[in-house]
Design a protein that fits this description.
single chain; 299 residues; alpha/beta; Rossmann fold; six-stranded parallel beta sheet; elongated
Length: 299
């Protein structure tokens, strides 16, 4: 099976697509090709010349996948010229019926439709399982977003409280590209014997995968939705650090929805004595979607 992955270059989107590809590779022999999306003028030229991509020596695709609005036109152009089934990992900005399959997170409230698979969060490249050492903890820090403001003092209060109350756990803290520089500098100055800070710029994807598999406890700021679902897929006990909400939105309701299903523990509940426990259900959405996709397309 030949898979073309049309990429917009964004790490989160690439991780989602990679998760689906890896799940497919567990089920079928696959040849995988990653192709950067093209701007519209270049796509129009490709249609006129009936040639896509510019290096058309690639084998024709069975599947063309992508995430991110910028990939839509390239995905459709690839299908028009080279054939294959199209799969987008998101609520598309173009009509759903223009694609062969759309994998859409439930929090986007998609309509049930023959060409839609509703997923529990975004797909991930995380494999369920791992040691989940109760002496190893991980804190993943995001940053301000369209839906969340940022309060570094509130964040530091929570981190210090967790470190003080779990002295038997060795915590690794890392930030993200969205983390304000001042916050990152403050994280590096946390003076706790059981806390170490590692800047995200010093890490690669393999480090994160290893830590998600190793950590028994993972705390994540509520703005980092993709990381929340990665941690839930890993199967560790997941807690959510408070971040002020900028405006009410379906994204900001995800933590409470997960808490109501006993998937995560909110910091305010933990601080009142609620235990940090493993999720009631361990997710593996990439594998589930891969199986559905193969059946649907008879691949």
């Amino acid at each position: 099976m030949v898979i073309w992955h049309i990429s917009d270059g964004r790490r989160g989107h690439d991780n989602q697509c990679q998760g689906l590809v890896e799940a497919l590779q567990q089920l079928r022999p696959c040849n995988y090709y990653k192709i950067n999306h093209s701007p519209l003028p270049r796509l129009l030229s490709s249609v006129l010349r009936r040639r896509y991509p510019a290096n058309d020596s690639l084998p024709d695709p069975d599947l063309i996948i992508g995430a991110g609005h910028d990939t839509h036109a390239s995905i459709l152009c690839a299908k028009l010229i080279r054939g294959g089934r199209t799969v987008v990992l998101m609520q598309p900005s173009l009509p759903v019926t223009w694609f062969d399959l759309c994998l859409i997170p439930a929090h986007d409230k998609p309509r049930a439709a023959p060409k839609t698979i509703i997923t529990e969060g975004a797909l991930t490249g995380i494999a369920p399982g791992g040691a989940h050492d109760p002496g190893a903890g991980l804190m993943l820090i995001g940053g301000p977003s369209r839906h969340h403001r940022w309060d570094p003092d509130l964040l530091l209060t929570q981190i210090n409280s967790i470190a003080d109350k779990t002295s038997s756990v060795n915590w690794l803290i890392t930030d993200s590209p969205r983390t304000p520089t001042e916050t990152s500098q403050t994280l590096g100055l946390v003076n706790k014997g059981n806390v170490a800070y590692v800047c995200h710029r010093e890490l690669d994807r393999s480090w994160m995968l290893a830590q998600l598999a190793r950590a028994g406890y993972i705390w994540i700021t509520v703005d980092s939705v993709s990381m929340i679902y990665e941690a839930l897929t890993a199967g560790a006990a997941v807690g959510l650090l408070e971040v002020p909400v900028r405006r009410r939105h379906r994204i900001t309701q995800i933590p409470v929805q997960l808490q109501s299903r006993k998937m995560v523990t909110l910091y305010q509940d933990w601080n009142r004595g609620a235990p940090l426990t493993k999720p009631a259900t361990v997710l593996n959405e990439s594998a589930r979607c891969a199986e559905i996709l193969l059946r649907k397309f008879a691949l």
